Amino acid sequence: MSKNIPQPPVHNVDDKSSVEASRMHFSLPAELEAGEPPEARGLERDEVRLMVSYVSNNQVAHTRFRQIEDFLNAGDVLVINTSGTLNAALPVQSKDGTRFGLHLSTHLPNNTWVIELRSYTDALKKTTRPYYGAKPGETYQLPAGGKLTIHKAYRSDQAVPRLWIASLDLPAPLHAYLNEYGFPIRYGYVREGWPISYYQTVYATEMGSAEMPSAGRAFTHQLITRLVAKGILIVPLLLHTGVASAEYNEPVYEEYYRVPQSTAYIINAAHEANRRVIAVGTTVVRALETVTDTNGITSAGEGWTDIFITPQRGIHAVNGLITGLHEPLSTHLAMLEAIAGRAHLEITYQQALQEGYLWHEFGDLHLILP
């Protein structure tokens, strides 16, 4: 990460109450939590299920992702996030010999990291939960003689911090070290470890995300070729995702983004021509809303975003979204409501539950259209 990148902004938590007011309430059965990649279920990436819904009339269609071209028109713009996923999980050990899991979240410009320590919940050390006992100044041993030093809580407004600012002292360059000793971040619903290749989109160009920008996982090279041949424009941006906060009922955190001038130009031209601009993932929405004004004009930009999208704020950059299915506590649901409205979301999520759609990064997808 270059040294001239703007520093992360001051935290913006003013809209936390908006998220609480926007929270949808439903129960997610355990059998609908995708615990393995679709490839392990005998499917190709693009054979996951796709729910297509139209906000204007609440119509809902059920298909497979590889049929998405049937619902897109020539001139539509798909905006993708080309950030690649790191092996961002590492084993660490405290001075007293206690073993923990370490999740690297965000690489800051001063070469420190936002990190999360996690305690193991089973004897085989396969599942973890947040560890709240870290203290400033503590050091932890990393594989091959590496060292982690805790500096301070990432947020000053939390009595019991989950995330910390820390530095790494590694015996090898970062990416080589993570490739050798790290592994993908996974949570309890993913029962087995999977290689990092299962956590990459086919169009990833720059490594930096702690967790996969998963809305784009179902795209294949063949599908992208068919979409381009149909006249659908695919334009890139970059947003490096940090560790998930949805399961902890927390606001979102700062993330690094970069929106190229060419992408901004094509989005503005599409809006001018009354074409649809469809974000592939909530990370794309977050980056674009950071550089789009209230008149819907998108500019190029690079830096750190702490933008928090709620129905009260609204969305100006896109009018469509490809996304996974989100848990009841997820702050992403507030963003989806800003795009689709509460009534439409309730209709689609009821159908997703009834039809047995799968949740999480290895699950099924939802295409929201105007």
TrEMBL record:
- An individual GO BP term: tRNA queuosine(34) biosynthetic process
Instruction: Identify this protein by name.
Output: S-adenosylmethionine:tRNA ribosyltransferase-isomerase
Origin species, per record, is Ktedonosporobacter rubrisoli
The UniProt keyword set, sorted, is: Cytoplasm, Isomerase, Queuosine biosynthesis, S-adenosyl-L-methionine, Transferase
According to the UniProt entry, its GO molecular function terms are:
S-adenosylmethionine:tRNA ribosyltransferase-isomerase activity
Task: Enumerate the Gene3D superfamilies for this protein.
Answer: QueA-like
**What Pfam families does the record tag this protein with?**
Queuosine_synth
PANTHER family documented for this protein:
S-ADENOSYLMETHIONINE:TRNA RIBOSYLTRANSFERASE-ISOMERASE (PTHR30307)
